[in-house]
Specification:
single chain, Immunoglobulin-like, 7-stranded antiparallel beta sheet, flat
Length: 306
């Protein structure tokens, strides 16, 4: 009889532990995942802060993916903890556990956002996927497949170009051009495509990616002493915690009354990582052959002319 009672007592104790542990462990799991996300975000940000020659974009991508997985785990743990609390509304322990788990999940989400800022290409891919998810609904099976196709193209481009949002955008734009050709064969698909990806300036993917403003960059230009060719070096410093892409139109370096003025044709965009500096050689030509070139190391003033 005593053996039966002992077994029954152990069984009941085990059942209590079975129901008590998940709520406790979910909160701890969320906190652990939040720390993993924070560590991964820091690793990605530290790598992004290195000079362009030293930066390992593949490592940044790996750390972002770690942060993404950790944030997803924290969110799942928080949901489980909240479900347990909702099922036992009078259990203050479970309510507190859910509160802690939700706070940890929010912290993990913020860390993931920070990690994405270190990998502007992957952030661009996420922005594109959000745009696709936000397009008008359609019951057409082809439209559903096309949406998944675009999202997969964005993911692939982001993984291959974690530090280059412009390359991601070009890759997805190419995919949209392919889809546009196929869409001509189905009126419903064509209507959906034209409504959600209207062509503007020859492009279908007209969205702005997250990031800082060019106004946040610190610009410094110094002369090289050359009359043509590499006539100046532009130094871009990003004091912010997020990457900033600088775009260049035609530039004029005025003479200031002493030296030659220069014209600098437009050049490709340059992305400056958080808390880092990039030197950009400016190729141009003088606009007054009768004046002396700006001396090497001398500061220049830039004006936008187009």
């Amino acid at each position: 009889m005593k053996s039966i009672i002992r077994i029954a007592t152990m069984f009941l104790a085990g059942m209590l532990l079975l129901f008590a542990v998940p709520a406790f462990s979910q909160g701890k799991t969320a906190e652990k995942s939040a720390k993993e996300a924070a560590d991964a975000a820091k690793a990605a940000t530290d790598e992004a802060a290195k000079s362009e020659d030293e930066r390992d974009c593949a490592k940044i991508a790996r750390e972002v993916n770690k942060a993404k997985a950790a944030a997803a785990a924290a969110e799942a743990a928080a949901k489980n903890a909240q479900d347990a609390a909702d099922q036992s509304p009078k259990d203050n322990t479970k309510k507190q556990d859910a509160k802690d788990a939700n706070a940890a999940a929010e912290a993990a989400k913020k860390s993931l956002d920070d990690a994405y800022k270190a990998a502007p290409g992957m952030k661009a891919a996420e922005d594109i996927k959000k745009k696709v998810d936000g397009t008008s609904a359609s019951e057409n099976s082809q439209v559903k497949k096309i949406k998944e196709e675009i999202k997969k193209a964005a993911d692939k481009a982001g993984a291959e170009n974690p530090c280059d949002p412009d390359a991601v955008k070009r890759a997805v734009e190419k995919k949209l051009e392919e889809i546009e050709e196929r869409a001509q064969k189905n009126k419903e698909v064509k209507t959906w495509f034209e409504r959600n990806f209207p062509e503007k300036d020859g492009k279908h993917l007209n969205i702005n990616f997250g990031g800082g403003s060019m106004n946040d960059l610190v610009f410094t230009a110094t002369g090289t002493g050359n009359t043509t060719g590499h006539i100046a070096t532009l130094t871009l410093t990003n004091p912010t915690g997020q990457p900033i892409t600088a775009t260049f139109d035609n530039l004029l370096i005025p003479s200031g009354g002493q030296y030659q003025p220069y014209v600098v044709p437009s050049r490709p965009p340059v992305t400056v990582a958080p808390h880092s500096t990039v030197e950009v050689p400016l190729t141009g030509y003088c606009a007054d052959v009768f004046s002396k070139p700006a001396p090497a190391g001398g500061h220049c003033r830039l004006l936008k002319i187009g």
